[in-house]
TrEMBL record:
Major enzyme class: transferase
UniProt subunit comment: The RNAP catalytic core consists of 2 alpha, 1 beta, 1 beta' and 1 omega subunit. When a sigma factor is associated with the core the holoenzyme is formed, which can initiate transcription.
Name this polypeptide is given: DNA-directed RNA polymerase subunit omega
Domain of life: Bacteria
Record keywords: DNA-directed RNA polymerase, Nucleotidyltransferase, Transcription, Transferase
E.C. designation(s): 2.7.7.6
GO cellular component: DNA-directed RNA polymerase complex
Length: 86
């Protein structure tokens, strides 16, 4: 169960709970990949391509977990569903 951000606040940004879950899941995977690649780049002598990674969008997060971070970005209006994709 999530307490912050509240589901009611999140549903102001996304039209359904299903869409919210899908959007948060996709963004959480992007956050995990970014963090992993960034750590790998710092620990390695070999160059790591961060060009395709999507960086963190907020300056401060209340959550340390990727799903919580994704939900915070959704609530802030930084992440939304692109209806043009098929």
């Amino acid at each position: 169960m999530i307490l912050y951000p509240s589901v009611d606040e999140l549903l102001k940004q996304v039209d359904s709970r299903y869409s919210l879950i899908m959007l948060a899941s996709k963004r959480a995977h992007e956050i995990d990949k970014y963090r992993l690649d960034k750590d790998r780049a710092q620990d390695s002598d070999k160059p790591v391509d961060l060009e395709m990674d999507k960086p963190l969008l907020l300056n401060h997060y209340n959550s340390t977990k990727s799903v919580g971070m994704a939900l915070e970005e959704i609530e802030a209006g930084m992440v939304s569903i692109d209806d043009s994709e098929d």
